[in-house]
What we know:
Blueprint: E1 14-15, E2 23-29, E3 35-41, H1 44-57, E4 67-71
Antiparallel strand pairs: 1-4, 2-3, 2-4
Amino acid sequence: MTNMDDSGDEPWCEQCKPEEADLWSVFGHLVEGGLECFGDFPTEAEATSFALLVLNAYPHLNKFGLMGWVKC
């Protein structure tokens, strides 16, 4: 993650190109709308490994997928 807020407040994140990512996050879509972050990882490989574990345990989540990369 890169802190994109120099004011000292909580850092915020935005989606970016993979080569610009400072952090890889695994998100799930909520039935009622919105997203839930399941975890943040320093590498794409670690995030992918975690996402595959979640998708194998809960195959209905394959409908939307889980991966995302963010710059914070």
